[in-house]
Design a protein that fits this description.
By secondary structure, this protein is of the alpha+beta class. The protein contains two helices and four strands; from the N terminus they run E-E-E-H-E-H. Helix 1 links the parallel strand 3 (about 30) and strand 4 (about 55-60). It is globular, with a radius of gyration of 14 Å.
Length: about 100
């Protein structure tokens, strides 16, 4: 069975799930929590599904920022949650898991 861990990216906490066996397709889920800040780490059914399908998961914790491009001091007084995802989270996924978003 895969496992969850907590890491820091750009000075902020993120939950990371690494499956026991990674899918050959390199699937990655970027989970952006809702206003109630529910964590997938607290949902065993998700963990089982991620593990069965070999999916890696990154779930940043940004408070009640709504993932907007507006400063939310509950998250950070200098960077917006949107900028954090674009400037810190996506590059981390690319460099650590060699995964890129699909081209639209």
């Amino acid at each position: 069975m895969g496992k969850w861990s907590e890491i820091q990216i750009g000075g902020h906490s993120c939950d990371v799930f690494e499956p026991a066996s990674v899918s050959p397709f390199g699937y990655v889920i970027l989970y952006l929590h809702g206003v109630h800040m529910g964590r997938l780490v607290d949902q065993p059914r998700f963990e089982q599904t991620f593990d069965v399908h070999g999916v890696k998961v990154l779930a940043p914790q940004v408070g009640r920022s709504w993932w907007t491009d507006k400063i939310c001091t509950e998250f950070d007084s200098e960077i917006t949650a949107e900028r954090y995802v674009l400037e810190d989270i996506l590059p981390w996924i690319d460099s650590t898991w060699t995964a890129k978003p699909p081209q639209i």
